[in-house]
Design brief:
2 domains, 11% strand, 3-stranded antiparallel beta sheet, 434 Repressor (Amino-terminal Domain), mainly alpha
Length: 136
């Protein structure tokens, strides 16, 4: 598993840090804003606004970014195919080169994911950094 990056040296403002992380993750995948938008079924301007820090995006957009939109299926004849889905369409991918590329991207994204324990620590750290008004 690759070494995890230290987040504390990055921007301390949560919105800006979120934007930086989005840009970094998209760049690691090697996809443009347009390609990401097409893959997830949202307008590219939404992701541009999120990466610039002008918007946090709707819960639906953030959920689309978070979900693995690809499923891999092993067929009885031994071949592996992929099924991708977004809000607009679903697609069965049978071409070997495309399936291999999707598998590599999926594995790379999975390798970057935080463990449940690390996720909890990250969420708690974010909650401490974000100023909140006391509830009444």
């Amino acid at each position: 598993m690759p070494q995890r990056r230290v987040v504390t040296g990055r921007s301390q403002e949560p919105r800006q840090r979120f934007a930086e992380e989005l840009r970094h993750l998209r760049a690691e995948r090697g996809v443009s804003l347009r390609e990401l938008a097409e893959e997830l079924g949202w307008d590219a301007s939404n992701f541009g606004k999120m990466e610039s820090g002008r918007s946090l995006g709707s819960p639906e957009i953030v959920e689309a970014l978070d979900q693995s939109a690809v499923k891999f299926l092993r067929l009885p004849d031994g071949r592996t195919v992929a099924y991708t889905e977004n809000d607009l369409r679903g697609e069965l991918v049978e071409e070997i080169a495309s399936v291999v590329l999707l598998l590599r991207r999926h594995d790379a994204m999975r390798d970057l994911a935080l463990s449940p324990v690390e996720s909890r620590k990250f969420i708690l750290r974010m909650l401490e950094e974000v100023p909140c008004e006391p509830s009444t």
